[in-house]
Amino acid sequence: MKHSLTGQVLTAQGLKTGTLHFDQQVLGFEEQELQGPQNLILPGFIDVHVHGGGGFDVMDGLEGIRGMARYHARHGTTSLLATTMTGPWDQVVEVLRDIKQASQTQEPDCAQVLGAHLEGPFISKHRLGAQPDFTLEPTPERVSEALSAGNIRVVTLAPEVPHAAGGIRQFVDAGVRVSIGHTAGNEQDALQAVELGASSCTHTFNATGGLTGREPGVLGVVLTSEMVHAEVILDFHHVHPLSFKLLTLLKPDRTLLITDAMRAAGLQDGIYDLGGQEVTVQGGVTRTLSGSLAGSVLTMDQAFRNAVQCGLSVEEASRLASLNPAKYLGLEKKGMLEQGWDADLVVLGPDLEVHQVFVGGTQVKQEIQPV
């Protein structure tokens, strides 16, 4: 089915007013002079790190994966990586199989599930954050089992844990992006990981250690390594606006907006389950009973608005939410609205609120069903 949308369209040459024509792919753009405020027509958001939303969680299995993909589609996310929690190994492997199944079909009104982000269990027990303590070493046998089970696109791994070097090589050789995270390691550990092929950092500034003049640590390596991408949770609870500004100044083409959202996204304050443990949600902040931040209730459209609030232009914020993650994952037809590219797009009003979402040229229903 062919569609035409008129407004300010983000093209390769910047924002231009006119009409975008598309079916499953972008057919072309017709530049026109338009009067008055116009909707923004942008590439759909790509979230490489999301656990849940709308009452659903990836660890619930296939229906949970589809439910959270449906919820986030209404907020402009057109593609995502279903992200696991650290848990019993058999459960993690089973969920990887569910994610693989979800990635093989496109459900109506859902963001496209591109595959899995395996967050844990190959992390440090000293930097768990909100992850349950089911940490394991990335032995060749476990890595092989994980690779066989699921369509893994990204794996979070602490570079200092035993067998980390071999695990990084094994994942990289299989085409999986290795993301440094939940780590108590130092700059030497991180440098070795990058040399072995690690190419990103999981929720930068969180569970990655700090940076001083004498001890740059993991964060120093991430900020200064040209080829390392950096996830960031821009909800103003996990990261200060000035830290975000520093990140985008150093890595404008490598910063990735993510949500790290859990099942409570879109729901009322209360007590919810995250990886088998209770977390409280109050005023948009999610914490474990011990007080640690526990994921978020962020959506990609809110992260986009927050980036603009921090001083980024619409074009710059869109890059962080769409083109940068597309390039990071090697998606050749996503992240821009160019002729022949996938018609994944989000329409925002002048207030940057979501008006319409299209996944592969099909419009996503905006009414939110009760959970």
From TrEMBL:
Keyword set, alphabetical order: Carbohydrate metabolism, Hydrolase, Metal-binding
Keyword Ion transport attached: no
InterPro entries xref list: Amidohydro-rel (IPR006680), GlcNAc_6-P_deAcase (IPR003764), Metal-dep_hydrolase_composite (IPR011059), Metal_Hydrolase (IPR032466)
Record note on cofactor: Binds 1 divalent metal cation per subunit.
Cofactor: a divalent metal cation
Positions that bind Zn(2+): 119, 182, 203
Keyword Protein biosynthesis tagged: no
Record-listed substrate binding positions: 130, 206-207, 214, 238, 293-295
Single GO molecular function: N-acetylglucosamine-6-phosphate deacetylase activity
Catalytic residues identified in the record: 260 (proton donor/acceptor)
Domain Amidohydrolase-related: 41-364
A Pfam family matched in the record: Amidohydro_1
BP terms from Gene Ontology: N-acetylglucosamine catabolic process
Family: Belongs to the metallo-dependent hydrolases superfamily. NagA family.
Listed name of the protein: N-acetylglucosamine-6-phosphate deacetylase
Organism whose genome encodes this protein: Deinococcus cellulosilyticus (strain DSM 18568 / NBRC 106333 / KACC 11606 / 5516J-15)
